[in-house]
Fold each of these.
Amino acid sequence: MITCRNLTLGYDGQAIIKDLNFTVKRGDYLCIIGENGSGKTTLMKSMLGLLRPLSGDIVFDEGLTAGTIGYLPQRTDIQKDFPATVREVVLSGCLKRLGRRWFYSAADRQLAAENMARLGIAELADRSCRQLSGGQLQRVLLARALCAADQALVLDEPVTGLDPQVTAELYRLIEELNRAGVTIIMISHDLGAALKYATHILSFSDRIFFGTRQEFTALMGQEAQA
């Protein structure tokens, strides 16, 4: 689905990540982990087409582009104060589908309704986003991302600031989406969640690791014994 070949990323000609190679296949659940400043966000921006690589290539499968990947950004206070209803925010995920149309179509509205139902927020459709809890707002933004693209989602620290119960519920929803065929690429500091849910892990530490969750677990065991 997405292949990164000999990728070097950075800013103003200064490399942060060098010679990165990995592949995301359809249906994968990839967790990208590492300390702040290790390059996770730089990689995410490059995959979304917001930052050009210094060298190397990001190759997308046929029918997929950087612009057709759904994106759930980190939570901000601005999102909580956004003066719009849940339905309006979810529908805005269909903006790229409008083309030359001025208005949302019946199909757009149906898609928004289906994704609200899918994420358990249909009863909140007419409520202002200002009235939502943190967990409810994350569900709204996840539904919006699904309206934008239902093949692959990039999630940037999706549970930051949420309490443990809401965090568990959101992880469950993401797992259900993945089991339904949505490819998940998640940036996270939560190693426990990565080891529980991910099929593959990309780790930026002293050296870059990419492989299956089982391979990463085995490597951690070897390093612990060393």
Amino acid sequence: MKRAVVYARFSTDNQRYESIDAQVRACQEFAGRNDMVIVNQYVDEALTGTKDERENFQRMIQESSLGFFDVVLAHKVDRFARDEYDYHATKRLLKKSNVDIRFTAQDFGNTPESALMENVLVGMSAYYSRNLAAEVMKGMKENAYKCKYNGGYVLYGYSVTSDGTYRINEEEAAAVRHIFESYVAGQPFTTIMEWLKGRGYKTRRNRDFSIGAVREMLKNERYTGVYIFNDKTKARKPKAPIEIIRIEGGIPQIITPALFQAAVKRMEANRQAPGAHKAKRIYLLSGKVVCSHCGSSMQASNRIGGANKTYYASYRCGGRKIRGSSFCDMRGMNADALEEMVLDTLENQVFTDRNIKHMAKRLHNEYRDARGRHWDTIKALEKKLQGVENKIGNIIDAIADGYRQAGMKEKLVALESEKNALIGSIRAENVSNQLDLTQLDIEEMMHEGKGIKSKDPLEQKRIIDLYVEKIEVKKEQVDVYIYLSDSVVFSSSGERNRTADTTGMNRVL
């Protein structure tokens, strides 16, 4: 019997019946039907699935490595996560601890379609979230073109009026001017911070200014009167210039452009460049590449070599790294060539109109069958509920007729409890069937993969995580396996470090 834990989450936008209790009951019913025993529960309340900072969720991941449980049960994919990156990263962490994930309302078994159906449901949740975010962004952009406040924290040195326009907060602006003037004059951060602290200046969070806070102010061009919107991602990474709304003179000016440029110039001069090779590289295939010789995962690796200190990115056998070349003599694979090969495969052989329609049809058939199984479960639960209600009615009738027997009250309480649990399970199953995906819905979501080679690396990795099952590296060949394909989609031969092209690819979908 497998040991299972329940993960349940309640958010402020929750459906009426998707309470914590309903999710837990659904997991208990599922465990009973699948020879599992529940040994613990992890519950997070009023938190969104797009964030992975959930306290008990993180505790569950940490404790998965202790060997206390074998399976994580959750009601639906969107209770577990709505962000594909976190979902796949979490799944890999659990897999390293030999822990599986099962979704009670979206359990598709172990068919060839099940793995991709799970991925598609994750992708579909994120797809809907992105569409909603796009609609919200339209309104925010309209505000931005009018140089209006768009929510979030107000930049230090400014206040916002009742109609959403910016005005200078003169008390704070004095501190901003001093920071820029002092820094350009050559004063160190510590001296500037002491001046601010001595005069009682605090950040928006009522804390003393740190070096990081002062440095961020010095890099903020808005103080020159430029209105800037949508310049950073949620992870505080710069966005592409085409996505940024930038309007000169859109807000009041606190410092001159010349003073700002002087501060930037000093920061550039003081920065000790760490070297381009230390910049973070996104490895598109991490967690997917396998060494065919020893079966180990091939891990992302970078090194500096040669007289010119050239930067090399590669995927190297983890078994060889840990146990030496006597255990495995597989050489590393050039990361750029391998990633290009996989991207070519996806763009030219997987995400064609014909193959998208083919995959969507298979997935929709599996989804339709799964919904049918849910209706069978509901009918069985309703039949059991009817039996419990009959027993309750018999006891009530007996009491009404004056019949008394020891233990009748306790039996009635137990039956009422069983009745409530069954009602909760039926409601949970009904919720899972409210989403009626059509084949066109699935096709539309899959079309996000078209043109993958022109997308940014994070988007490329998201799509690869969804559709690529594994990449098996052999000494003279690389095989790419795609979910829902009947065999290897692409097999290369010859020099593995060459620049990949599409010559000789055979479509097998």
Amino acid sequence: MQTYNYNGPVWIFGNLVTTNFRASTRAVSKQKALSNLTYQFKVQNGYMPSAKVTLDAKYLSA
């Protein structure tokens, strides 16, 4: 597993809610890392699991 860091914007239902979300996770792939980070954002900010949260993969670094 590899450690991935995210430092970038977050959109919810297409609306920009923050420009500087910072988080890290360990995952087997970039896609799984984005999924983990999306979950972290939802939990930390009290969003429902059904909320459509989008992270931009270009801000993800290994």
Amino acid sequence: MSRASLQHWRIPALIAGALVIAIFALYWQTGWSMVSIWLRSETYTHGFLIFPISAYMIWHNRAAAADLSPAPNYWMLLALAALGFGWLLSDMAGVLVSAQYALVAAIPLLVAAVLGPRLVRTFAFPFAFLLLAVPFGEIFIPAMINFTASFTVTALQLTGIPVFREGNFFSIPSGTWSVVEACSGLRYLIASFTLGCLYAYLTYHTTLKRLLFILASLIVPIIANGLRAYMIVMIGHLSGMKYAVGVDHLIYGWLFFGIVMLLLFWIGSFWREESAQATTSHAASAQPASPVAVSKLFSAALMSLIAFGIWPSVSAYLDQAHRHPASVAFVLPASLAAWQANAEPLSDWKPALANAAAQSVRTYQHDGKRVQVLVYYYRSQQPGKQMVSTQNLVVSEGTPSWHKLGESTLQVPLTPPLGVIQSRLHGPQHHLLIWHWYWVGGEYLTNPYRAKWIQARAKLSGHGDDGAIIVLATPYAANPREAAETLRTFASDAVPALTGLLQQTRGAP
């Protein structure tokens, strides 16, 4: 292929590239939020490689565009405007991951608007590959932890080793083990999926084979992580807890993962498909490339810039126009109905909630029953100071002295009914039963996604983003039913007063 055959793409490519750079400059906070996660989390460090790999794949296969002509498509402006509005909703709700997806997904739409959808379809995989740069997956950690714990316990039982399990913690005769976030296998899953997508694209050319290999790259690491956890426990058990209990635990894990991935790629190589000859890819139906007026390209780029680039300004305007004072004064009273405050703390447990605008903690007592109340109030939320996020956890998996035994959602028979998230914790001296729920836009709810939506709706309507997490805790010895009745009685007595306090704080200047 001669350079002349791609000559007509130089100026259009420069215009499209400048447009993408301009968009990233306007959305710099969203872009930087991705980079900062790549920097601090080993799970997502691969994000630094995604854009260069995608760019290389486009450049390596640039001959596929030789017979195409730039053809601006103004229908893409509607898609860009809709995507920008989606980004605005995500920004209002503080859902960082969907805002990041909106920004990355805008790249192929911008290119399609200026250079034409045919070009984007020609390089569909490199453009889709960009989505892997978004740090996504932490939502699956609890399910993956539970699967790994269940897989390991079942495998140990099949081996003939007695196991006592509480939540994600289990004991065998030689020692006690726990499945925490680092053991969930998320890193293996993300690495496998990323490599699997790239391998499938480069190795196969039929859609079915590509999809099957990508599916294998998702299933294999999940099963392999269960086997890895089981093998590590067995190594520790057979060595008298001498091996696989320290840093070698991680070394064995990554070594095993590397072997599994090599086997996956080796098996996949048996179905390798040879690439078609370049002469047959486009020549059969190719038409001579025709130039397009540069003014038309600039016009499409300018309209694209407006359609998608205006939304950060809209967000800034709404944020400033309806911003409430950041300072919040919220203090739990000395009494709630018949319950009186008690100076003695209930326990040393506290939620893994950070950067609230205000927080208040009190222990109340009535008829020999004790309940600890914790209220975390949020206002002017932003990354790192959000009520609902993957980092802001009421019950953290990694608390050293408190172990979560289980979690469920239930409806408390009050008037009106109150939905709560119930957690059981095992501590050094006793168990704790925890109830918590969200308060957003004057509503009580347990669904974090609905909480985000109500937060976005409230901000768009000019009512601010005030919200709170209400936590109740009470101890129990063996039967959590008595503790649940204690919390139900307290909620029946105290929730009306708590609601009034929250509403008063929200309306306070």
